[in-house]
Design brief:
Blueprint (H helix, E strand, L loop, with lengths): L9 E2 L14 E2 L6 H8 L10 H6 L1 H8 L1 H22 L4 E5 L10 H11 L3 E5 H9 L4 H10 L3 E6 L9 H20 L4 E4 L12 H18 L2 E5 L10 H10 L7 E4 H6 L15 E6 L26 H10 L5 E4 L4 H4 L3 H17 L3
Parallel strand pairs: 1-2, 3-4, 3-10, 4-5, 6-7, 7-8, 8-9, 9-10
Helix pairs in contact: 1-4, 5-14, 8-9, 9-10
Length: about 375
């Protein structure tokens, strides 16, 4: 709720427009949150400051004692403060390129690293299939790890599809062993985390979540031995682990200190999760957020990975998502993950640069 007085004749509602303000009032410029506006409003040119409590308790009295000149000066200062806060807030996160964004499977892995580094990313999220291809073609992981380090980047996460979650015990055992091999590859490159999606169970019948929690715990134990944490990944299109409620339950029921979530803006929407509940995720139990956006059409039941767009180019409430996660303590990696075939037709260097610029712009708007 906004705080107003007739001294400034300004409307301070959530969606200020000329149409929805009372007659004779002007829309208040969006110069930050209520806290910032109160601070600016209550700061005088003579450095006197009125407390927020007194402002709220007696806005008319407080405003008259401050004076119109002070108010105008304070509002001018308020225009500058949020911009500085937004710029400083960019350093809250690490910025990562998931190589699907540049159609990584079509590019040599060393080129993927170079593109991400030259675009200005802090880190990269490689797909294990590309690491395996590099090794199969005679490449040495130690050389790749050195190249990654020399470029000033880290491997903040990796994408893998071991079937750790499935019902069939033989298939699950093979899936866990695959996860172990994948983690060894990730660790050799200096990585400490890997995605753990419901691969193999996305189209099966619904699984018992208590059993899924025990299977995730088994995977976490393997990760502990490999020094790589498997991040429980939500897939919005899947029959299992498609909602925030499901992954929260499984992570909690796994009862393991390394249990954590890997969320994705698009997948949260696709699975029908309410973004208002994202604040329930403890920041300490989330290391990476897949950043993307989605358009108003096609509708949610038929929207697909190919429809993802750059952050800020769609209708996702990204600013609200980031604010909620920050309040819960999240200050990790934002990884740009897109599968848009239109972007794949463009130079990958351009896509990488554009994605980083738009991701940072979306972050700035959340402060």
């Amino acid at each position: 709720m906004g705080m107003t007085s007739k001294l400034d004749l300004r409307c301070d509602r959530q969606n200020d427009t000329k149409d929805n303000c009372p007659t004779g009032w002007k829309p208040m410029p969006r110069v930050g949150n209520l806290s910032h506006r109160l601070e600016a409003y209550a700061t005088c040119s003579n450095d006197k400051k009125v407390s927020r409590r007194s402002m709220i308790a007696g806005p008319v009295v407080a405003s008259s004692s401050i004076g119109v000149g002070c108010l105008l000066s304070a509002m001018a200062n308020a225009e500058e403060a949020p911009q500085g806060i937004a710029a400083e807030g960019l350093s809250t996160y690490r910025y990562c390129l998931n190589t699907s964004t540049i159609h990584g499977e079509k590019l040599p892995i060393r080129q993927q690293l170079k593109i991400a580094a030259e675009a200005g990313y802090d880190s990269i999220e490689l797909w294990v299939r590309d690491i395996e291809k590099f090794v199969a073609e005679g490449g040495k992981l130690t050389d790749l790890a050195k190249e990654l380090s020399d470029l000033g980047m880290t491997l903040d996460s990796a994408i893998a599809f071991g079937k750790w979650i499935v019902n069939d015990p033989v298939e699950r055992a093979a899936g866990l062993e695959q996860c172990r091999r994948d983690m060894d590859l990730v660790r050799t490159l200096g990585g400490k985390r890997m995605a753990a999606p419901p691969a193999g169970a996305s189209q099966e019948h619904k699984l018992d979540l208590n059993e899924v929690a025990q299977r995730y715990r088994a995977l976490l134990e393997i990760g502990k031995g490999c020094e790589v944490i498997p991040q429980l990944e939500l897939w919005g299109f899947s029959l299992n682990l498609s909602t925030l409620a499901e992954v929260l339950f499984v992570a909690a029921a796994a009862d393991h200190p390394d249990a954590c979530l890997l969320l994705d803006v698009y997948h949260l929407y696709k699975g029908g999760s309410d973004f208002r509940n994202i604040g329930l995720v403890p920041g300490a139990n989330m290391h990476c957020l897949h950043m993307n956006d989605y358009p108003a059409t096609p509708d949610r039941p038929v929207i697909a990975d190919k429809d993802r767009v750059y952050p800020g180019d769609g209708i996702a409430p990204i600013a609200d998502i980031l604010r909620s996660l920050r309040r819960s303590g999240f200050a990790g990696t934002l990884s740009l993950e897109l599968f848009n075939p239109n972007y794949w037709q463009e130079p990958p260097e351009l896509v990488a640069r554009t994605g980083l610029e738009k991701m940072k712009r979306a972050v700035e708007k959340s402060f």
